[in-house]
Each structure stands twice: as C-alpha cells, then as structure tokens.
Amino acid sequence: MRKEDCFFVGTIISKFSFKGELLVKPDTDDISLFENMESVFVELGKELVPFFIEKCNLHKSNLLRIKFEEVDTEKDAESLLKHSLYLPLTLLPRLSGNKFYYHEVIGFEVFDVNYGYIGTISGINDASSQPIFEIHYQGKEILIPLHDDFLKEVNRKEKKIIVTTPDGLIDLYLEL
C-alpha cells in the first residue's frame, strides 16, 4: 500500500498495559469512525506495514485503545510508539454538501463571489487553530481561512469551490 493512497488515522502515543496494548491519538472530530477497525497500516520507516487488530475501543473521550495481533508485550508495544497509523482512502465515508476532506479538494479551482477566479488549491495548512486554504494564482500564494461563513459551495463534479472573502483580503495578496 502506498502512502498516497491512504489517509492519516492518528499517532501511537503510549503503551497502555503490560499485554501490548497501545493508546492512539486519532486525527478526527468523530473518534467513533475508527472504533471497529479490523486492521490498520503502521508507518515503519518509509513502509506501511499492515497490523491486524485484536481489540479496539474508545479510551476516555479522545483516545483509542488498540491491541494488535502478535503485539503481546510491553517491549513489542514500545517499538511502535510515536508511529503513525493509516487506512486506505477507499474506507473514508463519502461527504456531501460543503463538507470535504482536505486531500479531496487539492487541485480544485477557487472562485470568490465578488472577485471571480482566484486560483487553485495547492494545499491546506492545518498547523494552526484555523485551517487555511493555500491557493496559487499567477505565481502568488493567496491564503484564505477555512471558515463556514466564507465557504458558499463545494462542487465536486466541476472541481471548484465558491467562497465569499472579507473585503480587501484577496487584494492584499495580489498587490504585493
């Protein structure tokens, strides 16, 4: 399995028991999506290695407690700490309307209600508290906060997104 064909599930953050159980911090708002996983890919070096799940349940409110097959000791579990988990993109539930996965809209064209065409999404920066569309237009980068009030329409068929940005935001980038 190639990493490009997968989505990030979360990171193994600690051991839970002496029997090889692990705690995973998932990268989702809806942790229950991962509660019934049968297997997952663990990134070991540059490879994605399949691990079959013996048991997986919610732990407290924001963690998953996972017991992998053939990971039966603290030492086995320790070797997996800080590693990332992935699942195939085909397992993501379909979203509709103005909801989307970040990877899904890369390459979409962006149009502002007042300004018109403003470029193509090259990435989404989610390193801060507010995710931001990274849009390339004529050799320049335009950054638009990903906010429900700005997002008017996501058209998957035409691969375009329509936004309404605050006055002057786009001009700020194009005047530089």
Describe the structure.
The protein has 176 residues and is mainly β. The protein folds into 2 domains: 3-91, Elongation Factor Tu (Ef-tu), domain 3; 102-174, SH3 type barrels (Roll). Helix content is 6%, strand content 45%. The protein has a 6-stranded antiparallel beta barrel. It has a 6-stranded mixed β-sheet with strand order 10-9-8-7-12-11. A hairpin with a 2-residue loop joins strand 3 and strand 4. The longest helix has 6 residues, at 169-174. The model has no long low-confidence stretch (mean pLDDT 91).
Spell out the blueprint of helices and strands.
Layout: E1 6-15, E2 22-26, E3 39-44, E4 47-59, E5 63-68, H1 74-78, E6 84-88, E7 109-112, E8 116-125, E9 132-137, E10 140-145, E11 151-155, E12 160-163, H2 169-174
Parallel strand pairs: 7-12
Antiparallel strand pairs: 1-2, 1-6, 2-5, 3-4, 3-6, 4-5, 7-8, 8-9, 9-10, 11-12
- Summarize the helix and strand pattern as letters: EEEEEHEEEEEEEH
Distance between the termini: 43 Å
User: What is the helix tally?
Assistant: 2
CATH class of the largest domain: Mainly Beta
Shape: elongated
CATH topology of the largest domain: Elongation Factor Tu (Ef-tu), domain 3
Q: What labels would you give this structure?
A:
six-stranded antiparallel barrel; 2 helices; mainly beta; 6% helix; single chain; 2 domains; 12 strands; Elongation Factor Tu (Ef-tu), domain 3; 176 residues; six-stranded mixed beta sheet; SH3 type barrels; elongated
